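Example record

The entry below shows one chain as it appears in the dataset: sequence first, then C-alpha cells.
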Amino acid sequence: MIEKYPDRTTGRRLRKIVLFNAALTMATAGTVGTVGAEGCLIKEIKLEKQENHADSVVINMTGCPAPKVSGLEGPTPRIVLDFPAGRFQGCRTLQMDVSGGSVVKIRGAKHDHPLNMFRIVLDLKPRRSYGAEQTWLQGEDKYIIKVAPETPASP
C-alpha cells in the first residue's frame, strides 16, 4: 500500500485534564525532529478557520522538534506549546488577536531562563471543553494543532 503522506506523523493521546467544567484532550505527533545547528526558528504562525467552530493553528518552522504541549485550567482555558531552543523570526514577542471559532488570541515570547525556549499560548473561548489534534508534517517543516469544541457525550 502506498502511503499518501509519508512524512506525516500523527499519534497517541497525551492526557486528559479538567478545565473549567470541561476537559481538554490532546493527541500528539510524538517526538520527531531535532534541533538544528542554528536552533529552532519559527517563521510564521497563522490561524485557519474550520467547520463547527474548529480552528487550525499552522506553525511554519525549521530545525524544530515537536513542542512540549500542556493545557491550563481556569475560566480562560489555554493550550501552551513550548519549543526548546526556539525563536520567532524577527522578534522576541508576538500577539495576534484572532476571531476563530475556538481560539481568540495567539501570543508568544522568547524565554532565556530557566529554559531556553519559545512559548506559544493559544487563548481559548472560556467555559468550554476542547479537543486538540496535532499533526507534524516533517517534509514541509510544518506543525498543525487543530482545536475544536467537544460535544457532550449523550447518555
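Notes for this example: The domain at 8-149 is CATH 2.60.40.3470 (Immunoglobulin-like). The CA atoms of residues 106 and 122 lie 5 Å apart.
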